[in-house]
Amino acid sequence: MNNKPVTSNQPPATNLYNLSFDEMTAFITGLGEPKFRAKQVWEWLYQQYAGSVAEMTNLPKALREKLETAVTLHPFTLVTEQRSSDGQTKKVLFTLPDGNYIETVLMKYEKRRTLCISTQAGCAMGCVFCATGQMGFFRNLTAGEIVAQVLYFARELAETGDHVTNIVLMGMGEPLHNYEETLTAVDRLTAPDAFNLGARKITISTVGLVPAIRRYADEQRQTPLAVSLHAASDEERDKLIPINKRWPIAELMDAIHYYLEKTKRRITFEWALINGENDTVEQAQKLGELLQGLLCHVNLIPLNPTAGYGGTPSSRERVDAFQAELANYGVSSTVRVRRGIDIQAGCGQLRDRIVKEQSKS
User: Is residue 5 part of a domain?
Assistant: First the structure.
């Protein structure tokens, strides 16, 4: 991919979502306005989901004019969107000002509206079955770019009287590799005076960055943690997740035990079931032995195929046998409902398709 920066003679507009409330106050007073205007702008962003400065009708016209030239509420541009045939999944591809792409997915369930959001453009973890891992790493997203993905869909859902109920940080990128910006975004999304989503409604996923897991545990955060495990032995996991060579399963499990001791909160393990690879009864037994007695739950996810990996999803029979074996060890599990398969909703797949189309044109 050619990631040439976009050049302009104009100074870059300030992404308002990048600002904390104190920074917002300093920004607004720097424009010669009283402090209380910052609270008004803040409420327009996080409670009214304003899509433009023009919508902020309780601001003086002079201030709106200043903001129109100095700020942006759209730190990315919509490239394309896809909807699944059942109408329950929508995936959007955004381009950032520097030419990088990110993806965000809305999944509708009976009572939930779940967003899967990105924390990086690309990913440095290199997981072999993941389209994002196959493309490599470009850069971290800012907290504002992470938050803006949520507000994009919050605005859209509000138009029909609906709202975001859950967020999973399982889109493009490894959230704990971009720790500061990711957790700043989470703090903004859970703050009572900002987006005000319950902390337990946001799940952070990691492939197993051991120091970051320990830091996360020390901070006593309420947001649930999910670990992408996918194999129960180093020999198998090394093939799928390169970071395992840096922090093998024994070190990862030590960090997880530390997390459980510190937080007393259940941890989730993600397991992408790959036909004939990690979906055998023997693998289930290894996983059961590894997790037996832990305060945990396993999400079993039949593989979402990607062009860069030859694996295929497990059959229903193999999934059932795997799950039954886990139950023999007292390990709870559920099979995740696969969403958006017909639109390749797995992270990185839409970006990959668009880049390939552009290279041919």
Answer: no
Q: Is 103 a catalytic residue?
A: yes
Q: What is the pLDDT of residues 84-121, one digit of tens each?
A: 888 889 999 999 999 999 999 999 998 999 999 999 99
CB atoms within 10 A of CB 199: 14
Is 347 among the residues known to form the active site?
yes
Catalytic residue among 33, 103, 181, 277: 103
Size (the chain), residues:
361
The answer to whether 283 and 322 are in contact (CB under 8 A) is yes
In the chain, the number of structural domains is 2
Residue 91 near residue 345 (C-beta atoms within 8 A) = yes
Q: Which domain holds residue 117?
A: 77-360
- Give me the catalytic one of 116, 123, 127, 347: 347
**Per-residue pLDDT, 20:** 97
* Sign of the dihedral through C-alpha 223, 228, 229, 235: negative
pTM: 0.91
Residue 4 falls inside a structural domain: no
Q: What is the pLDDT of residues 239-251, one digit of tens each?
A: 999 999 999 999 9
